[in-house]
Design goal:
By secondary structure, this protein is an alpha/beta fold. The chain is about 30% helix and about 20% strand. Strand 13 and strand 14 form a beta hairpin. The radius of gyration is 19 Å and the shape is globular. The chain binds S-adenosylmethionine and iron/sulfur cluster (SF4).
Length: about 325
């Protein structure tokens, strides 16, 4: 599949909008509504769309949420997903809180070896402040268990926020000196109604400066064909990689190969644009595979060439928050 000259081979599937954490950059602190259970795509429905997408050229799938591991039945869904011919790369983005060595082993046995953990600080008190939950040790133990089980690569995503976790940036980057982890710093994207303000946003140049003044020069790492949007670097002698995801300071729209399927069964061609096309409604109404393929193609036609989410442009902020789309 092609959209605006870009080959689309990556489907990001959000299996739930529910989450056991309340990260302050992701969900509002005030009460917010969740999607009614009967409006959430059932596993069977997601699998049908995934099969079809695979027939249409999708080779990579990332499972996200909300928190994917809070949804009941997730392991048997993943097992079935792994049997779809043509999907050669299945990975998961998780807060890690529900993972333990046994569950990690189960994932490995299915053939899932790529995990992205969200971890914005190595300080338990800071972790509680950011996520609203006192679960740092659970998450860190899950990261180490994944490492010990031979998961590769383990990616750690940290959203850098001024006055909240900026003091932790050198420590997080320092993990790459000890472990073969990819520690990726993500620029905060103003989405929905999170309580984070634009003043908290730190752009990559500043993050990079903080790392270099603590650890020395970051040397660029050549890109692999399969690399996502992260710009990759290494500290001298480090087994791991430091990455920067720069949706604000440097758009990567021209290289974006993704389509998203939200948990309420809509196709979202761009994370930062609220256009979505319903596929679950037609599927439930009896659409054939040919009709559904046409819906996928029609969604891709709407994939924008660019976004306009530069710092301080409130008119352009998508109204959906991350848990409802899947980051
Ligand atoms: N619950 C899982 C987790 O936290 O990894 C998966 C879903 S979460 C929405 C996916 C990713 O989105 C996480 O890495 C998180 O850090 C990122 N994220 C959430 N809100 C964000 C925001 N406003 N700006 C940048 N990244 C954000
Ligand atoms: Fe939950 Fe992930 Fe959002 Fe944190 S970033 S609230 S863990 S969905």
């Amino acid at each position: 599949m092609i959209a605006g000259g870009r080959p689309i081979n990556y489907l990001r599937i959000s299996v739930t909008d529910r989450c056991n954490f309340r990260c302050l950059y992701c969900v509002p602190s005030k009460k917010f509504s969740v999607i009614a259970h009967d409006r959430i795509a059932r596993y069977e429905e997601i699998l049908r769309i995934a099969r079809l997408a695979s027939d249409m050229g999708i080779t990579k799938v990332r499972i996200t949420g909300g928190e994917p591991f809070v949804r009941k039945g997730i392991f048997s869904f993943l097992e079935r997903l792994c049997t779809i011919d043509g999907l050669r790369d299945i990975s998961i983005t998780t807060n890690g809180s529900q993972l333990n060595p046994q569950r990690i082993q189960t994932l490995r046995e299915m053939g899932i070896t790529r995990l992205n953990f969200s971890l914005d600080t190595l300080d338990p008190a800071g972790f509680k402040r950011i996520t609203g939950r006192d679960r740092f040790n659970n998450v860190w133990n899950a990261v180490l268990a994944a490492h010990e089980a031979g998961m590769e690569p383990i990616k750690i995503n940290a959203v850098a926020l001024r006055g909240i976790n900026d003091g932790e940036i050198p420590k997080l980057a320092g993990l790459t000196l000890k472990y073969p982890f990819h520690v990726r710093f993500i620029e905060y994207m103003p989405m929905g109604k999170s309580d984070v303000e634009n003043g908290h946003q730190i752009l990559t140049d500043e993050i990079r400066e903080k790392i270099e003044s603590a650890h020395g020069r970051l040397m660029p790492v050549p890109r692999d064909a399969d690399d996502g949007p992260a710009k990759k670097f290494q500290l001298e002698g480090a087994p791991g990689v430091v990455g920067f995801i720069t949706p604000i300071s440097s758009h990567f729209c021209s290289e974006c190969n993704r389509l998203r399927l939200t948990s309420r069964g809509t196709l979202r061609p761009c994370l930062l644009n609220d256009y979505e096309k319903d596929i679950l409604g037609p599927l439930r109404a009896g659409a054939s595979d040919t009709d559904l393929a046409e819906i996928i193609r029609a969604a891709l036609v709407k994939k924008p060439k660019d976004h306009h989410l530069e710092a301080g442009k409130p008119d352009e902020i998508p109204v959906s928050h991350m848990t409802s789309i899947g980051g």
